[in-house]
Model the fold of this input.
Amino acid sequence: MPSTDKTVAELTGIRCVDIEAALDPAEPDGVYRDSRECAALALTSGTTSLLLSPPTPRPKKG
Amino acid sequence: MEQSGTAALLQGAVQDLSSDVASALRGGGHAPVTGGPEDGITVAAVRVLGADLLLPHLLARTSPPPDTLEAFRLTVKTFPPRADAAPTVVWSHWAMRRTLRRFEQNDGLTPAAGEGAEPDAAWLDGATWQYLTHQLAVLAPLAVPGADSAVARAARGRPVDVARGFVRAVRRRDWQQAAGAGRWLTLLDGVPDTLGLDSGLDFVELMGGSDPRVALQVAAARAMRRSGALV
Done:
């Protein structure tokens, strides 16, 4: 099956890099929630309050 | 960052497998995985998904289909970690070996090889709670009831830090990290009641559940929470 062989050949060269990147990902930059999400969280949080407490300060860049 | 074509293919294959496993964890069945040597993408995707491929069978105490177990075995053999691989890569492979050995023993097969000595977990010593949570979330496949490891012991020693990390991940909208941390929290003693873990998992699923990898971790957390399991 030439097409399958080609796929394997393409993978052979780079798959270790891709796989290791997937298995050791860097933490993505945070995206802080907006008020609509806060409202959804309030609806789902029931009687708990920890998730709704004021957010931690954003890290300073630079 | 722009992904290579292969990376995108791999990510798609991982998502497909994750979706299948999440469905099985919710009781929706589990299609056999057939990843022979000719199917490089599937074998690579199994490596990325890791031990979680067999989690539904582990929790339900059932044997995986022979084709799935064979694909899993092939993956373990095909992708040994390099000597200088990152700890998460090494631990992920060790978790797969441990899982494979467990099923081979259950099925009366002679294990091809033992899981080997535990890798070093010193990189977690003194880790900040943010980094600890991130690393634990990456290694969520190690969060399995009754499965001890140095990583699990590190998590057990810092339940409040993992809870803080869970909240931080939610606030940062890092749903994959939040789901992985939530899965660990279901297995830990000493998690503050004020965390509201069940509600938090609901929220993570609501916001991030369209990503099959997030859905898998939430489904795993729920399945383990239902069983009342601890590490």
The interface with chain A takes residues 4, 6-7, 10-11, 14, 37-41, 44, 47-48, 50, 79, 82, 85-86, 88-89, 92, 130, 134, 138, 167-168, 170-174, 177, 192, 194-196, 199-200, 202-203, 206-207 of chain B (CB under 8 Å). Chain B has two domains: 1-119, 121-231.
